[in-house]
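#struct-help
A.M.: can someone run this one for me? Single chain, 95 residues.
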Amino acid sequence: MALDQDQVRKIASLARLQIDDNQISEYQTNLSNILHLVDQLAAVNTDGVEPMAHPLDAVQRLRADVVTEENQREHFQKIAPATAEGHYLVPRVVE
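D.P.: on it. Structure tokens below:
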């Protein structure tokens, strides 16, 4: 799909881009090439192809989900300005 210069100006306006008149032909070529590539991708037959999250069969190496530190809430709340029932109290900022 080839774009004309008026379409490029309209796209630039919608995108809130300011394009000089001497750059419009370059944008016209680039945008037309992108749309041509999208048309090529849309023409590919993908029947029977399962979607995948990643093109490689990679697996994340994650650490074990175990507790590595002890609970220090009491220690940290001793130095807090205000606490109640295990929660930090903060001044109200929204009325």
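A.M.: thanks! The chain has a mean pLDDT of 91.
D.P.: also worth noting: Residues 5-43 form one domain.
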